[in-house]
Design goal:
The protein has 138 residues and is mainly α. It has two helices and no strands. Helices cover 96% and strands 0% of the residues. α1 packs antiparallel against α2.
């Protein structure tokens, strides 16, 4: 009878040890999973911060490109206005005759074409500067 009781107690103790070992194993697995998830969270936060920084940089570049484009358009407009004014003055003067007017018209046309080309190049460059980083931002 005492051996039976002792055996039952030993069995209960062994079951308890097995249950505790299983619980310890379960807790270790949960701890490892929590550490893994924390690492993933940290990595995701780092990537998000890097993406925010990249977005801010791209925004600054876009604003700079738009400003350059506006400046180029303003300069082009100013130069066109000056060329048109000079042409009008030459027409009024008419002392230089038709040859002077033709020369000024040709100069005006050349300057207008050059300014238009520069403005188009600036616009293309600005669009390229804004569009290019978006492709590589993957």
């Amino acid at each position: 009878d005492a051996d039976g009781k002792e055996g039952a107690l030993r069995d209960a103790l062994e079951r308890r040890r097995a249950a505790l070992a299983a619980k310890k194993k379960e807790l270790d697995a949960a701890r490892k999973e929590a550490a893994r998830l924390e690492g993933l969270r940290r990595r995701a936060e780092q990537e998000a911060a890097a993406l925010r920084a990249r977005a801010a940089s791209l925004q600054r570049r876009r604003v700079e490109a738009e400003k350059k484009l506006r400046d180029a358009a303003t300069a082009r407009h100013r130069e066109q206005k000056a060329a048109a004014h000079e042409l009008a003055r030459a027409k009024k003067k008419a002392a230089g005759g038709d040859a002077e007017i033709a020369r000024l018209r040709a100069q005006h046309d050349r300057e207008t074409a050059a300014l238009r080309r520069r403005a188009e190049e600036a616009r293309a460059k600005a669009e390229k500067a804004v569009a290019r980083p978006a492709v590589g931002a993957r």
